[in-house]
Design brief:
Elements: E1 3-8, E2 13-20, E3 24-32, H1 34-38, H2 45-66, E4 76-82, H3 86-103, E5 107-111, H4 112-118, E6 133-138, E7 143-150, E8 153-159, H5 165-175, H6 182-190, H7 216-232, H8 238-263, E9 268-272, H9 279-288, E10 293-294, H10 306-317
Parallel strand pairs: 1-4, 4-5, 6-9, 9-10
Antiparallel strand pairs: 1-2, 2-3, 6-7, 7-8
Helix pairs in contact: 2-3, 4-10, 5-6, 5-7, 5-8, 6-8, 7-8, 8-9
Bound molecules: 5'-O-[(R)-(carboxyoxy)(hydroxy)phosphoryl]adenosine and zinc ion.
Zinc ion binds near residues 112, 116, 139, 273 and 303.
Amino acid sequence: MIRILGIETSCDETAASVVVDGREILSNIVASQIDLHARYGGIFPEVASRAHIETIFPVIQDAMSTAHLGWDDLDAIAVTRGPGLAGSLLVGVNTAKGLALGRALPLLGINHLEAHIYAAWLSETDFTLEFPMLALIVSGGHTELVLMTDHGSYQYLGGTIDDAAGEAFDKVGRLLGLPYPGGPSIEEAAQRGDPAAYRFPRAWLDAPHQHDFSFSGLKTAVIRQVQRLEKETDTLPVPDLAASFQAAVVEVLATKTARAAAAFGVTSTILAGGVSANLALRKAVTSAVNGPVHTPPIALCTDNAAMVAACGYWRLQSGQRDGWDMDVAPGLPLA
Ligand code: KG4
Ligand code: ZN
């Protein structure tokens, strides 16, 4: 039995978790900074790193005591080293180094995007890994289609050429006057709206960019529509705008994922990252893709440390051991 403490501070969540054998969650503590950043309408990096410094130790202590474990019970410490905000990543990496050094535990630097993928198998009972798999990673900073040919082996198929999917949700949410973060706010408003109320553009992009994405044209179309409506009416039809925007994002993501899954003959598909919490997206991808689709439990879609510990398990199995020179990598790619 391998018990790993995971630590995550790449963005605006301070998180720690203990996971057994990459599957069973003993504790999963997430301290969100959403309230701190909401007044800025987005993440304020300096505020984020300071909040991580204040919260990281209580969060780790909470994760250890909730798991009913002592330090001698751990087998390794896994920490997100990138991609993410440099100052925020530093807090997690330096804390992990201190703990690993003090307790003579192996240290594992983890790629945040890879961790999102492993969230799909946390707590899943009937799970066997079969490669090749396709992963759609949709978060606040990334929109990537990746072919996973083995643990730790990734081939980049395509990604966004402008805004990330989550970023588009956040920007349109702000435009519609919805609370930050925009993703969950738009999903909630969309439930009361008509997805066919406005026909917003879908960017399909031709070969050789058929696996890439673009959301800036969609964002501009929503801005123009809002400007037109503001001339005609005092109250914006927010639910219709939210539903029509969400429908455009979801259709492109689901269709391109299904096309890539067919083109590369994958055995299964994984949906990961904060935007994968979106029920309309989960439904659309599951029905568009021919073959099994794995989605993380909703609570594990957005940033958490259980996924970091789960990923750490497979990295440890593959022989990864990082030295004290392991550093943060704000632009770390997956493939
Ligand atoms: O993975 P994540 O927690 O952090 C990053 O690594 O970026 O993703 C956060 C992003 C935000 O842009 C947020 O608006 C979006 O995920 N998000 C959603 C939903 N929940 C979170 N987008 C659409 N629908 C949701 N339910
Ligand atoms: Zn993330």
